[in-house]
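We store chain and fold; example below:
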Amino acid sequence: MKTVETTFRIAYTEDQYRRAVEYVRDMKNHPKRVYWRGKEGKSDEELIMSHIAHRVLSGFYNNYDPAYAYKNIIGMYNHKSDSTT
């Protein structure tokens, strides 16, 4: 399977940041959840940023609205990847 590497530049609000902080804090109370797979050793800030990006991108994917993309996704860079993983 061919792969592409993509880098997004995403804008987020203070409210989105606060909610992500709360989410990560809550997940720390549940160390056996699937959420933690692949996140071992990440800092709180990395987890928070990952959660914001996931919410923004999945919201765009699941509810296509050009205005939403214009406000939140402010840049994207793609290139083919040699990796198959």
In short: Residues 44-62 form the longest helix (19 residues). The mean pLDDT is 84.
